[in-house]
Recover the amino acids of this structure.
Protein backbone atom coordinates (compact mmCIF):
# COMPACT_ATOMS: atom_id res chain seq x y z
CA UNK A 1 0.00 0.00 0.00
CA UNK A 2 2.82 2.33 -0.83
CA UNK A 3 1.25 3.38 -4.12
CA UNK A 4 -1.06 6.35 -4.60
CA UNK A 5 -4.69 5.91 -3.59
CA UNK A 6 -7.06 4.69 -6.32
CA UNK A 7 -9.98 6.50 -4.68
CA UNK A 8 -9.34 9.93 -3.17
CA UNK A 9 -12.30 11.43 -1.35
CA UNK A 10 -11.70 14.92 0.00
CA UNK A 11 -14.02 16.83 2.24
CA UNK A 12 -17.20 15.71 0.47
CA UNK A 13 -20.48 17.27 1.59
CA UNK A 14 -23.94 16.30 0.51
CA UNK A 15 -27.30 17.68 1.61
CA UNK A 16 -30.74 16.28 1.00
CA UNK A 17 -32.82 19.41 1.39
CA UNK A 18 -32.34 20.53 4.98
CA UNK A 19 -30.63 17.38 6.23
CA UNK A 20 -26.92 16.90 5.75
CA UNK A 21 -26.04 13.36 4.64
CA UNK A 22 -22.29 13.93 4.38
CA UNK A 23 -20.51 16.56 6.46
CA UNK A 24 -17.06 16.68 4.94
CA UNK A 25 -15.85 13.13 4.52
CA UNK A 26 -12.28 12.38 3.49
CA UNK A 27 -11.11 8.86 2.72
CA UNK A 28 -8.34 7.32 0.64
CA UNK A 29 -8.59 3.78 -0.68
CA UNK A 30 -5.49 2.10 -2.06
CA UNK A 31 -5.30 -0.43 -4.90
CA UNK A 32 -6.13 -3.91 -3.71
CA UNK A 33 -7.54 -2.69 -0.43
CA UNK A 34 -10.84 -3.89 1.00
CA UNK A 35 -12.54 -1.18 3.05
CA UNK A 36 -15.61 -1.93 5.11
CA UNK A 37 -17.95 0.95 5.96
CA UNK A 38 -20.24 0.46 8.94
CA UNK A 39 -22.53 2.75 10.86
CA UNK A 40 -26.13 3.26 11.93
CA UNK A 41 -28.79 3.80 9.30
CA UNK A 42 -28.84 7.39 8.10
CA UNK A 43 -25.15 7.82 8.86
CA UNK A 44 -24.35 8.52 5.19
CA UNK A 45 -22.50 5.33 4.34
CA UNK A 46 -24.64 4.45 1.30
CA UNK A 47 -24.59 8.07 0.18
CA UNK A 48 -20.78 8.08 0.33
CA UNK A 49 -20.65 4.90 -1.75
CA UNK A 50 -23.06 6.32 -4.30
CA UNK A 51 -20.98 9.50 -4.55
CA UNK A 52 -17.97 7.45 -5.66
CA UNK A 53 -19.60 6.64 -9.00
CA UNK A 54 -21.66 9.79 -8.98
CA UNK A 55 -25.09 8.17 -8.69
CA UNK A 56 -25.40 10.88 -6.06
CA UNK A 57 -24.20 14.37 -6.90
CA UNK A 58 -22.25 15.87 -4.01
CA UNK A 59 -22.41 19.55 -3.13
CA UNK A 60 -18.83 20.24 -2.09
CA UNK A 61 -15.43 18.57 -1.95
CA UNK A 62 -13.82 16.37 -4.59
CA UNK A 63 -13.54 12.72 -5.52
CA UNK A 64 -10.85 11.29 -7.80
CA UNK A 65 -11.05 7.71 -9.00
CA UNK A 66 -7.91 6.31 -10.61
CA UNK A 67 -6.75 9.93 -11.03
CA UNK A 68 -9.91 10.88 -12.92
CA UNK A 69 -11.75 13.70 -11.14
CA UNK A 70 -15.54 13.35 -11.10
CA UNK A 71 -16.34 16.54 -12.93
CA UNK A 72 -17.46 16.41 -16.55
CA UNK A 73 -19.97 13.98 -18.02
CA UNK A 74 -17.23 12.17 -19.98
CA UNK A 75 -15.18 11.75 -16.82
CA UNK A 76 -18.15 10.39 -14.93
CA UNK A 77 -18.82 7.76 -17.59
CA UNK A 78 -15.11 6.90 -17.69
CA UNK A 79 -15.15 6.39 -13.93
CA UNK A 80 -18.35 4.34 -14.07
CA UNK A 81 -16.80 1.87 -16.50
CA UNK A 82 -13.97 1.31 -13.99
CA UNK A 83 -16.19 1.05 -10.94
CA UNK A 84 -18.60 -1.86 -10.54
CA UNK A 85 -21.54 -1.49 -8.21
CA UNK A 86 -23.64 -4.08 -6.44
CA UNK A 87 -26.93 -2.94 -4.93
CA UNK A 88 -28.90 -4.05 -1.89
CA UNK A 89 -31.93 -4.77 -4.10
CA UNK A 90 -29.85 -6.46 -6.87
CA UNK A 91 -31.48 -4.32 -9.62
CA UNK A 92 -31.14 -7.05 -12.22
CA UNK A 93 -32.90 -6.28 -15.51
CA UNK A 94 -36.12 -8.36 -15.27
CA UNK A 95 -36.82 -8.38 -19.02
CA UNK A 96 -33.46 -9.95 -19.85
CA UNK A 97 -32.21 -13.48 -19.22
CA UNK A 98 -29.34 -14.05 -16.81
CA UNK A 99 -26.91 -14.29 -19.73
CA UNK A 100 -28.28 -11.11 -21.33
CA UNK A 101 -28.05 -9.30 -17.99
CA UNK A 102 -24.32 -9.98 -18.00
CA UNK A 103 -23.76 -9.26 -21.71
CA UNK A 104 -25.89 -6.16 -22.42
CA UNK A 105 -23.49 -3.55 -21.03
CA UNK A 106 -20.48 -5.35 -22.51
CA UNK A 107 -22.02 -4.97 -25.95
CA UNK A 108 -23.42 -1.47 -25.51
CA UNK A 109 -20.63 0.16 -23.50
CA UNK A 110 -17.51 -1.93 -24.16
CA UNK A 111 -18.53 -2.60 -27.80
CA UNK A 112 -17.64 -6.27 -27.55
CA UNK A 113 -19.00 -8.67 -30.16
CA UNK A 114 -21.92 -10.85 -28.99
CA UNK A 115 -19.72 -13.95 -28.97
CA UNK A 116 -16.97 -12.27 -26.92
CA UNK A 117 -19.57 -10.98 -24.46
CA UNK A 118 -21.19 -14.41 -24.11
CA UNK A 119 -17.83 -16.11 -23.54
CA UNK A 120 -16.93 -13.60 -20.83
CA UNK A 121 -20.40 -13.87 -19.26
CA UNK A 122 -20.25 -17.69 -19.14
CA UNK A 123 -16.84 -17.53 -17.49
CA UNK A 124 -18.16 -15.16 -14.84
CA UNK A 125 -21.37 -17.10 -14.19
CA UNK A 126 -19.15 -20.11 -13.68
CA UNK A 127 -17.04 -18.10 -11.25
CA UNK A 128 -20.04 -17.02 -9.15
CA UNK A 129 -21.26 -20.60 -9.16
CA UNK A 130 -24.44 -20.55 -11.27
CA UNK A 131 -23.43 -21.60 -14.79
CA UNK A 132 -26.63 -23.63 -15.24
CA UNK A 133 -28.96 -20.63 -14.85
CA UNK A 134 -27.94 -18.60 -17.90
CA UNK A 135 -31.29 -18.93 -19.67
CA UNK A 136 -33.41 -18.21 -16.60
CA UNK A 137 -34.94 -14.84 -15.92
CA UNK A 138 -34.12 -12.95 -12.70
CA UNK A 139 -37.61 -13.58 -11.31
CA UNK A 140 -36.94 -17.31 -11.39
CA UNK A 141 -33.84 -17.08 -9.18
CA UNK A 142 -33.42 -16.94 -5.41
CA UNK A 143 -32.15 -13.73 -3.85
CA UNK A 144 -28.67 -15.16 -3.37
CA UNK A 145 -28.50 -16.27 -6.98
CA UNK A 146 -29.73 -12.87 -8.17
CA UNK A 147 -27.06 -11.08 -6.19
CA UNK A 148 -24.38 -13.36 -7.60
CA UNK A 149 -25.61 -12.58 -11.13
CA UNK A 150 -25.43 -8.89 -10.21
CA UNK A 151 -21.82 -9.36 -9.16
CA UNK A 152 -21.06 -11.18 -12.44
CA UNK A 153 -22.79 -8.36 -14.36
CA UNK A 154 -20.54 -5.76 -12.69
CA UNK A 155 -17.37 -7.85 -13.15
CA UNK A 156 -18.08 -8.24 -16.87
CA UNK A 157 -17.03 -4.61 -17.35
CA UNK A 158 -13.55 -5.44 -15.94
CA UNK A 159 -13.81 -2.87 -13.15
CA UNK A 160 -10.76 -1.87 -11.12
CA UNK A 161 -12.94 -1.16 -8.12
CA UNK A 162 -16.10 -2.83 -6.80
CA UNK A 163 -18.61 -1.03 -4.59
CA UNK A 164 -21.02 -3.11 -2.52
CA UNK A 165 -24.03 -1.33 -1.02
CA UNK A 166 -25.35 -3.65 1.71
CA UNK A 167 -25.18 -6.64 -0.66
CA UNK A 168 -26.60 -9.14 1.82
CA UNK A 169 -29.19 -7.02 3.66
CA UNK A 170 -32.10 -8.10 1.46
CA UNK A 171 -31.22 -11.80 1.62
CA UNK A 172 -32.59 -14.65 3.69
CA UNK A 173 -29.98 -15.80 6.24
CA UNK A 174 -29.20 -19.07 4.46
CA UNK A 175 -28.31 -17.23 1.26
CA UNK A 176 -25.93 -14.70 2.75
CA UNK A 177 -22.92 -17.00 2.79
CA UNK A 178 -23.04 -17.85 -0.91
CA UNK A 179 -22.76 -14.15 -1.74
CA UNK A 180 -20.06 -13.53 0.88
CA UNK A 181 -18.05 -16.43 -0.54
CA UNK A 182 -17.98 -14.77 -3.94
CA UNK A 183 -16.93 -11.49 -2.32
CA UNK A 184 -14.19 -13.24 -0.31
CA UNK A 185 -12.87 -14.79 -3.48
CA UNK A 186 -12.78 -11.38 -5.16
CA UNK A 187 -10.91 -9.91 -2.20
CA UNK A 188 -8.34 -12.72 -2.36
CA UNK A 189 -7.80 -12.00 -6.05
CA UNK A 190 -6.79 -8.47 -5.11
CA UNK A 191 -9.88 -6.53 -6.17
CA UNK A 192 -10.18 -3.07 -4.63
CA UNK A 193 -13.47 -3.10 -2.74
CA UNK A 194 -15.53 -0.66 -0.71
CA UNK A 195 -18.23 -2.54 1.15
CA UNK A 196 -21.11 -1.12 3.16
CA UNK A 197 -22.09 -4.07 5.32
CA UNK A 198 -22.43 -5.26 8.88
CA UNK A 199 -21.20 -8.77 8.14
CA UNK A 200 -18.53 -9.02 10.83
CA UNK A 201 -17.35 -12.42 9.64
CA UNK A 202 -16.60 -11.02 6.20
CA UNK A 203 -14.97 -7.97 7.79
CA UNK A 204 -12.56 -10.04 9.87
CA UNK A 205 -11.77 -12.42 7.01
CA UNK A 206 -11.30 -10.00 4.16
CA UNK A 207 -11.31 -6.34 5.15
CA UNK A 208 -8.05 -4.43 5.48
CA UNK A 209 -9.74 -1.50 7.14
CA UNK A 210 -13.05 -0.79 8.80
CA UNK A 211 -14.54 2.69 8.85
CA UNK A 212 -17.30 3.74 11.21
CA UNK A 213 -19.54 6.56 10.03
CA UNK A 214 -22.11 8.52 11.99
CA UNK A 215 -24.06 11.67 11.15
CA UNK A 216 -22.22 12.14 7.88
CA UNK A 217 -18.76 11.92 9.35
CA UNK A 218 -16.09 9.26 9.68
CA UNK A 219 -15.86 8.66 13.42
CA UNK A 220 -13.10 6.10 13.53
CA UNK A 221 -11.11 3.87 11.19
CA UNK A 222 -8.82 0.94 11.98
CA UNK A 223 -8.01 -2.65 11.14
CA UNK A 224 -11.32 -4.52 11.67
CA UNK A 225 -10.08 -6.67 14.58
CA UNK A 226 -8.84 -3.62 16.43
CA UNK A 227 -11.90 -1.50 15.67
CA UNK A 228 -14.27 -4.23 16.82
CA UNK A 229 -12.36 -5.32 19.93
CA UNK A 230 -10.73 -2.10 21.00
CA UNK A 231 -12.57 0.98 19.76
CA UNK A 232 -11.30 4.32 21.01
CA UNK A 233 -14.37 6.47 20.42
CA UNK A 234 -17.45 6.37 22.64
CA UNK A 235 -19.67 6.54 19.55
CA UNK A 236 -18.01 3.42 18.12
CA UNK A 237 -18.42 1.52 21.39
CA UNK A 238 -22.09 2.43 21.56
CA UNK A 239 -22.70 1.31 17.98
CA UNK A 240 -20.74 -1.93 18.27
CA UNK A 241 -22.51 -2.88 21.48
CA UNK A 242 -25.77 -2.83 19.51
CA UNK A 243 -24.69 -4.97 16.59
CA UNK A 244 -22.21 -7.46 18.05
CA UNK B 1 -37.04 -17.77 -25.52
CA UNK B 2 -36.24 -20.32 -22.88
CA UNK B 3 -38.63 -18.81 -20.40
CA UNK B 4 -41.61 -19.39 -22.66
CA UNK B 5 -40.93 -23.11 -22.61
CA UNK B 6 -40.49 -23.10 -18.86
CA UNK B 7 -43.69 -21.14 -18.35
CA UNK B 8 -45.66 -23.49 -20.56
CA UNK B 9 -44.86 -26.30 -18.15
CA UNK B 10 -46.56 -24.49 -15.30
CA UNK B 11 -50.29 -25.20 -15.04
CA UNK B 12 -51.36 -21.56 -14.58
CA UNK B 13 -49.77 -20.49 -17.85
CA UNK B 14 -51.84 -22.83 -19.99
CA UNK B 15 -55.01 -22.00 -18.16
CA UNK B 16 -54.50 -18.28 -18.58
CA UNK B 17 -53.20 -18.29 -22.12
CA UNK B 18 -54.74 -21.06 -24.12
CA UNK B 19 -58.29 -20.85 -22.83
CA UNK B 20 -60.48 -19.18 -25.40
CA UNK B 21 -61.59 -15.80 -24.16
CA UNK B 22 -65.28 -16.35 -23.37
CA UNK B 23 -66.27 -12.83 -24.40
CA UNK B 24 -65.76 -13.73 -28.05
CA UNK B 25 -69.40 -14.88 -27.96
CA UNK B 26 -70.45 -11.23 -27.88
CA UNK B 27 -68.46 -10.59 -31.05
CA UNK B 28 -70.04 -13.62 -32.67
CA UNK B 29 -73.49 -12.48 -31.56
CA UNK B 30 -73.14 -8.99 -33.10
CA UNK B 31 -71.71 -10.41 -36.33
CA UNK B 32 -74.62 -12.89 -36.34
CA UNK B 33 -77.16 -10.08 -36.03
CA UNK B 34 -75.59 -8.20 -38.95
CA UNK B 35 -75.55 -11.32 -41.14
CA UNK B 36 -79.12 -12.12 -40.17
CA UNK B 37 -80.39 -8.62 -40.96
CA UNK B 38 -78.51 -8.53 -44.26
CA UNK B 39 -79.86 -11.89 -45.43
CA UNK B 40 -83.43 -11.66 -44.12
CA UNK B 41 -83.94 -8.08 -45.27
CA UNK B 42 -81.37 -7.28 -47.96
CA UNK B 43 -83.32 -4.14 -48.68
CA UNK B 44 -82.36 -1.87 -46.95
CA UNK B 45 -79.76 -3.59 -44.71
CA UNK B 46 -77.54 -5.13 -47.38
CA UNK B 47 -77.89 -1.89 -49.34
CA UNK B 48 -76.58 0.08 -46.34
CA UNK B 49 -73.58 -2.22 -46.03
CA UNK B 50 -72.79 -1.96 -49.75
CA UNK B 51 -73.16 1.81 -49.65
CA UNK B 52 -70.95 2.47 -46.61
CA UNK B 53 -68.30 -0.18 -47.33
CA UNK B 54 -65.89 2.31 -48.96
CA UNK B 55 -66.39 4.55 -45.93
CA UNK B 56 -65.49 1.62 -43.69
CA UNK B 57 -62.15 1.31 -45.49
CA UNK B 58 -61.56 5.05 -45.03
CA UNK B 59 -62.34 4.76 -41.30
CA UNK B 60 -59.89 1.88 -40.93
CA UNK B 61 -57.26 3.69 -43.02
CA UNK B 62 -57.55 6.95 -41.06
CA UNK B 63 -57.56 5.15 -37.71
CA UNK B 64 -54.59 2.88 -38.40
CA UNK B 65 -52.49 5.63 -39.98
CA UNK B 66 -53.20 8.09 -37.17
CA UNK B 67 -52.56 5.37 -34.57
CA UNK B 68 -49.14 4.45 -35.98
CA UNK B 69 -48.15 8.13 -36.12
CA UNK B 70 -49.45 8.57 -32.57
CA UNK B 71 -47.32 5.66 -31.31
CA UNK B 72 -44.17 7.33 -32.63
CA UNK B 73 -45.01 10.96 -31.95
CA UNK B 74 -46.38 10.21 -28.48
CA UNK B 75 -43.05 8.63 -27.52
CA UNK B 76 -41.14 11.67 -28.76
CA UNK B 77 -43.36 13.94 -26.63
CA UNK B 78 -43.05 11.65 -23.60
CA UNK B 79 -39.24 11.69 -23.83
CA UNK B 80 -39.41 15.46 -24.22
CA UNK B 81 -41.43 15.80 -21.03
CA UNK B 82 -38.86 13.68 -19.19
CA UNK B 83 -35.89 15.52 -20.70
CA UNK B 84 -33.31 17.30 -18.59
CA UNK B 85 -33.42 20.29 -20.91
CA UNK B 86 -35.75 22.89 -19.38
CA UNK B 87 -37.02 24.35 -22.67
CA UNK B 88 -37.83 20.95 -24.17
CA UNK B 89 -39.80 20.04 -21.04
CA UNK B 90 -41.59 23.38 -21.03
CA UNK B 91 -42.48 23.21 -24.72
CA UNK B 92 -43.80 19.63 -24.65
CA UNK B 93 -45.80 20.30 -21.49
CA UNK B 94 -47.52 23.27 -23.15
CA UNK B 95 -48.27 21.12 -26.19
CA UNK B 96 -49.85 18.38 -24.07
CA UNK B 97 -51.94 20.86 -22.10
CA UNK B 98 -53.27 22.54 -25.27
CA UNK B 99 -53.92 19.31 -27.17
CA UNK B 100 -55.80 17.84 -24.21
CA UNK B 101 -57.60 21.07 -23.35
CA UNK B 102 -59.29 21.74 -26.70
CA UNK B 103 -62.13 19.43 -27.83
CA UNK B 104 -61.09 17.04 -30.58
CA UNK B 105 -63.92 18.22 -32.84
CA UNK B 106 -62.75 21.83 -32.53
CA UNK B 107 -59.19 20.75 -33.31
CA UNK B 108 -60.32 18.92 -36.43
CA UNK B 109 -62.29 21.96 -37.57
CA UNK B 110 -59.24 24.15 -36.95
CA UNK B 111 -56.91 21.98 -39.04
CA UNK B 112 -59.37 21.69 -41.91
CA UNK B 113 -60.79 25.24 -42.07
CA UNK B 114 -58.52 27.62 -40.17
CA UNK B 115 -55.05 26.19 -40.79
CA UNK B 116 -55.22 26.40 -44.64
CA UNK B 117 -56.57 29.96 -44.42
CA UNK B 118 -53.66 30.92 -42.19
CA UNK B 119 -51.20 29.40 -44.64
CA UNK B 120 -52.85 31.27 -47.53
CA UNK B 121 -52.77 34.56 -45.63
CA UNK B 122 -49.08 34.07 -44.85
CA UNK B 123 -48.44 33.19 -48.50
CA UNK B 124 -50.10 36.40 -49.65
CA UNK B 125 -48.19 38.41 -47.06
CA UNK B 126 -44.78 37.08 -48.09
CA UNK B 127 -45.74 36.63 -51.76
CA UNK B 128 -45.03 32.90 -51.76
CA UNK B 129 -47.25 31.50 -54.52
CA UNK B 130 -47.31 27.90 -53.38
CA UNK B 131 -48.54 28.92 -49.94
CA UNK B 132 -51.03 31.48 -51.23
CA UNK B 133 -52.78 28.79 -53.27
CA UNK B 134 -52.51 26.13 -50.59
CA UNK B 135 -55.49 23.76 -50.51
CA UNK B 136 -56.07 21.38 -47.64
CA UNK B 137 -56.33 17.67 -48.35
CA UNK B 138 -59.19 16.60 -46.04
CA UNK B 139 -57.73 13.14 -45.54
CA UNK B 140 -54.32 14.47 -44.47
CA UNK B 141 -55.80 17.21 -42.27
CA UNK B 142 -58.02 14.66 -40.51
CA UNK B 143 -55.04 12.38 -39.82
CA UNK B 144 -53.03 15.39 -38.66
CA UNK B 145 -55.81 16.49 -36.28
CA UNK B 146 -56.28 13.03 -34.79
CA UNK B 147 -52.52 12.52 -34.42
CA UNK B 148 -51.89 15.89 -32.76
CA UNK B 149 -54.65 15.30 -30.21
CA UNK B 150 -54.07 11.62 -29.50
CA UNK B 151 -50.28 11.97 -29.25
CA UNK B 152 -50.83 14.15 -26.19
CA UNK B 153 -52.81 11.42 -24.45
CA UNK B 154 -50.42 8.73 -25.70
CA UNK B 155 -47.43 10.64 -24.36
CA UNK B 156 -48.99 10.65 -20.90
CA UNK B 157 -49.42 6.87 -21.06
CA UNK B 158 -45.80 6.42 -22.14
CA UNK B 159 -44.62 8.83 -19.44
CA UNK B 160 -46.48 6.93 -16.73
CA UNK B 161 -45.05 3.66 -18.07
CA UNK B 162 -41.49 4.98 -18.08
CA UNK B 163 -41.88 6.43 -14.59
CA UNK B 164 -43.29 3.15 -13.28
CA UNK B 165 -39.92 1.45 -13.86
CA UNK B 166 -38.03 1.48 -10.53
CA UNK B 167 -35.21 4.02 -10.21
CA UNK B 168 -32.78 1.20 -9.42
CA UNK B 169 -33.03 -0.03 -13.01
CA UNK B 170 -31.65 3.25 -14.34
CA UNK B 171 -29.02 3.36 -11.60
CA UNK B 172 -27.85 -0.15 -12.38
CA UNK B 173 -27.59 0.68 -16.08
CA UNK B 174 -25.74 3.94 -15.41
CA UNK B 175 -23.39 2.24 -12.92
CA UNK B 176 -22.37 -0.12 -15.75
CA UNK B 177 -21.28 2.91 -17.74
CA UNK B 178 -24.31 3.27 -20.00
CA UNK B 179 -25.22 6.81 -21.01
CA UNK B 180 -28.72 8.08 -20.23
CA UNK B 181 -29.79 7.35 -23.82
CA UNK B 182 -28.37 3.82 -23.76
CA UNK B 183 -30.07 3.10 -20.44
CA UNK B 184 -33.37 4.39 -21.81
CA UNK B 185 -33.11 2.36 -25.00
CA UNK B 186 -31.84 -0.96 -23.66
CA UNK B 187 -33.20 -1.07 -20.11
CA UNK B 188 -36.08 1.34 -19.42
CA UNK B 189 -38.11 1.41 -22.66
CA UNK B 190 -38.28 -2.37 -23.22
CA UNK B 191 -39.75 -2.72 -19.72
CA UNK B 192 -42.03 0.31 -20.09
CA UNK B 193 -43.49 -0.99 -23.36
CA UNK B 194 -44.85 -4.05 -21.59
CA UNK B 195 -46.49 -1.90 -18.94
CA UNK B 196 -48.19 0.39 -21.45
CA UNK B 197 -49.42 -2.23 -23.92
CA UNK B 198 -52.95 -2.55 -22.46
CA UNK B 199 -53.64 1.21 -22.12
CA UNK B 200 -52.16 1.80 -25.58
CA UNK B 201 -54.58 -0.79 -26.94
CA UNK B 202 -57.45 1.06 -25.29
CA UNK B 203 -56.29 4.25 -26.99
CA UNK B 204 -56.66 2.46 -30.32
CA UNK B 205 -60.30 1.71 -29.53
CA UNK B 206 -60.95 5.32 -28.51
CA UNK B 207 -59.28 6.55 -31.68
CA UNK B 208 -61.39 4.21 -33.80
CA UNK B 209 -64.56 5.68 -32.30
CA UNK B 210 -63.38 9.29 -32.36
CA UNK B 211 -62.41 8.92 -36.01
CA UNK B 212 -66.14 9.33 -36.73
CA UNK B 213 -65.63 13.05 -36.02
CA UNK B 214 -63.63 13.37 -39.24
CA UNK B 215 -66.94 13.01 -41.08
CA UNK B 216 -67.46 16.71 -40.30
CA UNK B 217 -64.35 17.78 -42.21
CA UNK B 218 -65.11 16.35 -45.65
CA UNK B 219 -63.70 12.87 -45.12
CA UNK B 220 -66.02 10.19 -46.52
CA UNK B 221 -65.66 7.80 -43.62
CA UNK B 222 -68.15 5.27 -42.32
CA UNK B 223 -70.21 7.88 -40.45
CA UNK B 224 -70.32 10.32 -43.34
CA UNK B 225 -71.34 7.60 -45.80
CA UNK B 226 -74.07 6.62 -43.36
CA UNK B 227 -75.32 10.17 -43.31
CA UNK B 228 -75.32 10.28 -47.11
CA UNK B 229 -77.28 7.03 -47.28
CA UNK B 230 -79.84 8.36 -44.82
CA UNK B 231 -80.19 11.59 -46.81
CA UNK B 232 -80.91 9.76 -50.03
CA UNK B 233 -83.21 7.08 -48.63
CA UNK B 234 -84.86 8.69 -45.57
CA UNK B 235 -84.26 5.50 -43.59
CA UNK B 236 -82.64 6.82 -40.39
CA UNK B 237 -83.42 3.83 -38.17
CA UNK B 238 -82.02 1.16 -40.50
CA UNK B 239 -79.01 3.29 -41.45
CA UNK B 240 -77.82 4.11 -37.95
CA UNK B 241 -78.52 0.65 -36.54
CA UNK B 242 -76.30 -0.81 -39.24
CA UNK B 243 -73.55 1.81 -38.89
CA UNK B 244 -73.57 1.36 -35.10
CA UNK B 245 -73.31 -2.42 -35.46
CA UNK B 246 -70.35 -2.12 -37.84
CA UNK B 247 -68.51 0.16 -35.36
CA UNK B 248 -69.41 -2.23 -32.56
CA UNK B 249 -67.93 -5.24 -34.36
CA UNK B 250 -64.64 -3.38 -34.84
CA UNK B 251 -64.42 -2.13 -31.26
CA UNK B 252 -65.43 -5.47 -29.74
CA UNK B 253 -62.78 -7.34 -31.75
CA UNK B 254 -60.18 -4.72 -30.77
CA UNK B 255 -61.17 -5.05 -27.11
CA UNK B 256 -60.70 -8.83 -27.26
CA UNK B 257 -57.25 -8.37 -28.77
CA UNK B 258 -56.35 -5.86 -26.05
CA UNK B 259 -57.57 -8.30 -23.38
CA UNK B 260 -55.44 -11.04 -24.93
CA UNK B 261 -52.36 -8.82 -24.91
CA UNK B 262 -53.09 -7.86 -21.30
CA UNK B 263 -53.24 -11.52 -20.21
CA UNK B 264 -50.09 -12.29 -22.11
CA UNK B 265 -48.05 -9.51 -20.52
CA UNK B 266 -49.33 -10.51 -17.09
CA UNK B 267 -48.31 -14.15 -17.39
CA UNK B 268 -44.90 -13.16 -18.73
CA UNK B 269 -44.15 -10.91 -15.80
CA UNK B 270 -41.47 -12.35 -13.59
Amino acid sequence: MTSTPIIQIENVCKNFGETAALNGVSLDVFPGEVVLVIGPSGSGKSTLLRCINRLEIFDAGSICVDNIPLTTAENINAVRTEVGMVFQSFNLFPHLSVLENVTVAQKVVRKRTPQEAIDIARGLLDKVGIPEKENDFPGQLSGGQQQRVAIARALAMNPKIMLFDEPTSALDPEMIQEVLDVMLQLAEEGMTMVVVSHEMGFARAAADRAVLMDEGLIVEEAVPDILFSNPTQERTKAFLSKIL
Amino acid sequence: MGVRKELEKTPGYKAANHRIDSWWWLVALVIGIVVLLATLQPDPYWRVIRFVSDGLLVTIGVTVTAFILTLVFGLVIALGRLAKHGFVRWFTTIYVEIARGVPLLVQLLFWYFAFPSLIQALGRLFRIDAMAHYLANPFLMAILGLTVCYSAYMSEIYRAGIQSIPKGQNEAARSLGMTQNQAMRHIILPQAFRVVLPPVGNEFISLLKDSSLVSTVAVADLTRRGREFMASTFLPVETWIMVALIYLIMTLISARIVAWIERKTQTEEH
